[in-house]
Amino acid sequence: MAEKLSLLQSLDFPAKWYREGRVEFVAPVFPTTKVGEPAAPTRSPVFYNPYSALSRDLTVVLARTFGEEVVAAEPLAGSGVRAIRLLVETTTVARVLMNDINPNAVKVMRLNAEWNSVAERCEVFEGDAAVFLTRLSGWRDRVQYVDVDPVGAPVKFVENSLRAVANGGYIGVSATDLAPLVGNHPETCFRKYGLFSGKTFFAKEAAIRLLASFVIMRGASLNIAATPVLSVQHRHFVRVFFHVLRGRSRVIKLLEKMGWIKACKCLHSETHPLHDFPAKICPRCGGEAAVVGPAWLGPLHSGELVEKMLSQSNDLPKARKILERISGEVDVVGYYPVDRIAHVNGSTPRSPIVLVASLRSMGYRASLTHVDPTAVKTDAPLEDVLRAAAG
């Protein structure tokens, strides 16, 4: 206890001890907002968001599926907890490279690595994330995993992260600026991501598909095919993990699954290939529909990878719970919130579980979704969804 107190006193800012997974570490004490989120996290002496623990849990579980000892890099490491957990809680990560531009973070990373007895397997860097990643872009220096978890948009770091990933490796990318991605601020989305967002009835999934699209297109310009293998929305963030392979032919094949999403308030939705920009008039009600894209229209998850991750997640119950939900999801574009269905039907909302059962009894695939507990995903035509919801 005395040693812990001494380490806290060695820092130039208020800090405390935390525990996450099997790692005990130091991070700052800072105020929270009324809803419990960190207040002004960019002004914290060292960034650590306890509400992103699930994101780190999933990273650990993914790393456990790697087939050999690998090197992982975190260009925006903050307290270093994610990278240190990869060393402590997996047998597949042999070494980590941790970087942060904040000198306080560098000090805390080193302290935390020493405390968890992994300092000899950590390389700690102080500097700009883009410069750090550029140093890893040569084929001899590339790593098998890069994690991009910024405050806000990841756009400044994606291209260099893709360059830094070895062929066959993985990259995890988070975005916490959900308002532009879900269509609340389309101009901001276009300015940041170069993509069109809009108001859809499956806004959080649209955000995931736009983030995936951004990473895919950044990779395409480099002849890097970044294929989404796990996509998650939770609380304040969306996160997509990608499998990275190089080659022009792979990129061309991947781009075939990019396109446009058209969605109307009446719950009509459709997808279009990249070369076919859709008119905004809804063919069902004649109203104006939202057009979102270019968006990733392909699978959001690799079923094989999700099953492997489930087998490695017994000690991380929150990660296991969301993986179980994902494993049962019907992989189609969009979902139907039951309150929106009821509004269109002019009826009382049905339970999502009851609606799923009803759609399955009609011969369709249907499931709940981790993105919205009040919604269903199904391959049923809209009119049959409305009929099933009417009872």
UniProtKB/TrEMBL annotation:
It is an enzyme of class 2 (transferase). InterPro entries: SAM-dependent_MTases_sf, Trm1, tRNA_met_Trm1_C. One of its GO terms (biological process) is tRNA N2-guanine methylation. GO terms for molecular function: tRNA (guanine(26)-N2)-dimethyltransferase activity; tRNA binding. Keywords: Methyltransferase, RNA-binding, S-adenosyl-L-methionine, Transferase, tRNA processing, tRNA-binding. It comes from the Archaea. Its EC number is 2.1.1.216. Gene3D superfamilies: N2,N2-dimethylguanosine tRNA methyltransferase, C-terminal domain, Vaccinia Virus protein VP39. Belongs to the class I-like SAM-binding methyltransferase superfamily. Trm1 family. PANTHER family: N 2 ,N 2 -DIMETHYLGUANOSINE TRNA METHYLTRANSFERASE, TRNA (GUANINE(26)-N(2))-DIMETHYLTRANSFERASE. This is tRNA (guanine(26)-N(2))-dimethyltransferase. It comes from Caldiarchaeum subterraneum. The lineage of its organism: Archaea, Nitrososphaerota, Candidatus Caldarchaeales, Candidatus Caldarchaeaceae, Candidatus Caldarchaeum.
